[in-house]
Amino acid sequence: MKLKLINNSSEDLIIFLSGWGCDDNQFKDMRSAKNVLLCWDYSDINFDFDASAYKNVYLLAYSAGVFAAGLIKNKLPALKQKTAVNGNPLIFDDYYGIPENVIKVFRGLNLSNYMDFRRDYLVAGEEELEDFNKNSSLRTFESCFEELDNLQKLAAREYPVMEFDKAIIAEKDKIFSPARQKEYFRGKYKTLSDCAHNVFYRFKNFDEILDF
Fold first, then answer.
1. Mean pLDDT over the full length of the chain
2. What is the DSSP letter of 119?
3. 3-class DSSP state for residue 89?
4. Rounded to an integer, what distance in angstroms lies between the CA atom of residue 212 and that of residue 208?
5. Where are the beta strands (DSSP E) in 45-126?
6. How far apart (Å, rounded) are the C-alpha atoms in residues 182 and 167?
7. pTM score > 0.90 for this model?
8. Most CB atoms closer than 10 Å: which of 58, 73, 87, 142?
9. What is the DSSP string of 81-148?
10. Backbone angles phi, psi at 47, to 5 degrees
């Protein structure tokens, strides 16, 4: 796992577990009044960060990061709030997880079809696609496939599940079923009606997501 601390001289910290295929470049325009620890690439699940100096620590997990949260839960400090965004801990479960046909789409990504994948699965409309392309992940396909291999191996074992305080579910998500997300997070979720898997263009900063 790769980590990058955005230091805003705050006593509070957001631990942001990003999704599969993401990197720090993808979220470089997201701001916060709090310090932010960006986490990405679950090709390994090593998490080594001392958060003991912080007054309040918030967990914000997106997509595959919602699953990864459980894998590092014993290394996390006491958390003031845990928010899941378009993902749940049962990432490859036959019922709640990512459907097999979508996994096959992931596996078939290449330079010729990646733009269609972004348009069809990640964003809602051409304006969001244009913004996404400006700050897209710089990782290679090989790196992403290695990460996916490791995620599937980890999910095939017995693993701890993180319990979240609340979830944000996009009604137009084509990676996780919104209906089954609502079932999983029963009583804990809020929805974004006109939004796809990548919700980050609907918020000005990380703090707005936590407060949603």
1. 96
2. I
3. coil
4. 6
5. 56-62, 81-85
6. 9
7. yes
8. 87
9. EEEEES--S-TT-TTTS--HHHHHHHHT--TTTHHHHIIIII-SSHHHHHHHHHT-----HHHHHHHH
10. -135, 110
